[in-house]
Structures are given as structure tokens and as C-alpha cells.
Design brief:
By secondary structure, the protein is an alpha+beta fold. It folds into two domains: about 1-65, no CATH class; about 75-135, DNA Binding (I), subunit A (Orthogonal Bundle), CATH 1.10.30.50. About 20% of the residues lie in helices and about 25% in strands. The protein is built from five helices and six strands. A four-stranded mixed beta sheet has the order 2-1-4-3, covered by helices on one side. A two-stranded antiparallel sheet has the order 5-6. A hairpin with a 5-residue loop joins β1 (about 5-10) and β2 (about 15-20). The longest helix is centred in the N-terminal third of the chain and has 9 residues, at about 20-30. The radius of gyration is 21 Å and the shape is elongated. The relative contact order is 0.16. The mean pLDDT is about 90. Bound molecules: zinc ion (ZN). The site of zinc ion has 8 residues, from α3.
């Protein structure tokens, strides 16, 4: 359904706010709460009017939105690490989460201390630190870029890119 397509919602100052669907975006436009910034090619027809489906809309008034740091989650870690073991680089559907500094040694459950690891590497590393186990991390563990909030199935919509630079 085209009305379910994702639409990027910009704040009045062009900062990305969230994602909604075409149906909601058109409702905001009809209520004059938003304007279409980027239109798609496809048309959506009502008995009396037809509209290009919006791809990016901008709110007419500024919304104060506190920026919440994204909370760590299993899915979040796996997608940050692209479903790849951060020790051996193997990509797998059945990855585990590894605490770089083991929990038993005071390691915290944070973005900076949790990585995706395959079962073999997790088992090999067990209760040691990467240095002790002589296992090097492929990437430094860090908080995911807020850009990832604006990805649909791991990809950014092409027309959204110019608006996401400021994120
Ligand atoms: Zn591995």
C-alpha cells in the first residue's frame, strides 16, 4: 500500500524529527500543519483531488524535541555491527552479544562495551578481556549514529539523504 510508504518528517528548521507514513503525511498537509518538501512521482487520488505522494515533509511550526540517546538493545547492537562477529568477522544469523569487559569483571551493559560475537568467539573469549584472549575487535564499539534512526531495513531513502547530514 502506497499510503504506508515512509515519509521523513522535518522540523520547521529542517531538522529530521521522525518518520511517518504517507497517509499521516497527507493528513498533516491537508490540515496545513506541514508542507511537502520533496514529492514523489506517484500520484494518490481522492474523488476530487490528486496529490503526488510526499517523500519528505516539513512541519509549519517548530517542535521542541529532546534528543534521547538511543537505548542499547540486542537488535540495535546486531544492526550496528551489521550482523557480523566483531572478533572474527563472520556474518551469521545466530550471533550472541559479548561484553568486551566481562560483566563478571565489572563490564557494563552499554553500547561501548557490548558487541556482536559468534558463538565460537564468545566461547573462546569467555571471561577474559580482548587483550587477555588476544582477540582484537574489528570495530570500536560505540553508540550508533542517529542516522540509523532514519533507515528503513538498514537503508536510507535516497531523497532523504540531503536532510540527514545535520543529524
Ligand atoms: Zn567470531
Amino acid at each position: 500500500m502506497i499510503t504506508q510508504n515512509p515519509v521523513l518528517v522535518l522540523n520547521q528548521n529542517y531538522q529530521p524529527l521522525n518518520i511517518c507514513n504517507v497517509k499521516r503525511a497527507l493528513a498533516l498537509i491537508l490540515l496545513e500543519k506541514a508542507e511537502s518538501t520533496v514529492d514523489g512521482q506517484e500520484l494518490i487520488k481522492s474523488p476530487t483531488q490528486s496529490f503526488n505522494i510526499p517523500i519528505v515533509i516539513r512541519l509549519m511550526s517548530y517542535i521542541h524535541k529532546p534528543i534521547h540517546p538511543k537505548k542499547i538493545s540486542r537488535q540495535g547492537v546486531l544492526s550496528r555491527d551489521k550482523n557480523t562477529c566483531q572478533y572474527c568477522g563472520m556474518s551469521s544469523e545466530s550471533l550472541t552479544l559479548d561484553h568486551i569487559i566481562p560483566k563478571s569483571r565489572g563490564g557494563k551493559h552499554t553500547w561501548e562495551n557490548v558487541v556482536a560475537a559468534c558463538i565460537k568467539c564468545n566461547h573462546k573469549k569467555a571471561g577474559s578481556t580482548p587483550q587477555e584472549a588476544k582477540m582484537k575487535l574489528i570495530n570500536k564499539a560505540k553508540k550508533p549514529n542517529t542516522d540509523s534512526n532514519y533507515m528503513i531495513k538498514g537503508k536510507t531513502v535516497k531523497e532523504w539523504k540531503p536532510f540527514l547530514i545535520s543529524v
